[in-house]
Design a protein that fits this description.
About 30% of the residues lie in helices and about 30% in strands. By secondary structure, the chain is α/β, with parallel strands linked by helices. It has a single domain, classed as 3-Layer(aba) Sandwich (Rossmann fold), CATH 3.40.50.150. It has a 7-stranded mixed sheet, with helices on both faces. Helix 4 links the parallel strand 2 and strand 3. The longest helix has 14 residues. The chain is globular, with a radius of gyration of 16 Å.
């Protein structure tokens, strides 16, 4: 359980995971699979906004040491059950991605942070806070790998190459690449960007 006060959005996600949300496709998103196949992931890995754990479970099956965190207690319960039934050694924790610097305070850092559509739902202030939290927990030379819907004429929702360049700027960060892709959903897909950012 998280030691931090709940954010109201937690209840929204708990309600979504009472069923099967449109974004929970039962497998990891393809850009992350391609990244693993290209050797672009290093342990230990933190999966922020892990949902029911498909990406974390996939990474663990590939031999990575993975911790998945999510605001939703129901999603984490489902992820933990999947890990048990599939006999996969992945770990899950109810935790707020806007408080991950607490891991660094406890002496735990990560070489890779994966984000399958968590950042793209944050508000402007939350995005700034998350980048600061991420800087604390990601080792120098480590990578933040993020997938999100393309921001097309929206004020906040989604991501864009320009925003990533601004938020992840020198001296602390360098955007390695941004590529156009799709975010698969149970019913269809939406245009998306996949980006890898390096912590200097």
């Amino acid at each position: 359980m998280s030691v931090f006060p709940e954010r109201p959005i937690r209840h929204v996600y708990d309600a979504a995971y009472a069923g099967v949300p449109n974004w929970d496709i039962g497998r990891p998103q393809a850009p992350f699979v391609r990244l693993v196949e290209a050797g672009g992931v290093r342990s230990p890995v933190l999966d922020v906004g892990c949902g029911t754990g498909e990406l974390a479970l996939y990474l663990a099956r590939q031999g990575y040491d993975v911790l998945g965190v999510d605001l939703s207690e129901l999603a984490i319960r489902q992820a933990t059950e999947k890990a048990r039934w599939r006999r996969v050694n992945a770990h899950f924790l109810v935790w707020d991605a806007l408080r991950i610097s607490a891991f660094a305070d406890a002496g735990l850092q990560f070489r890779t942070v994966v984000d399958s559509a968590m950042f793209h739902v944050l508000g402007d202030r939350e995005r700034g806070l998350f980048v600061r939290e991420l800087e604390a927990v990601l080792e120098p030379g480590g990578f933040y790998c993020v997938l999100g819907d393309r921001r097309e004429g929206r004020d906040v929702y989604g991501i864009s190459p320009r925003e990533l360049d601004v938020r992840f700027s020198a001296p602390a960060w360098e955007v390695e690449f941004v590529t156009e892709t799709a975010f698969q959903r149970r019913w269809g897909a939406t245009p998306a960007y996949f980006a890898v950012v390096r912590r200097r």
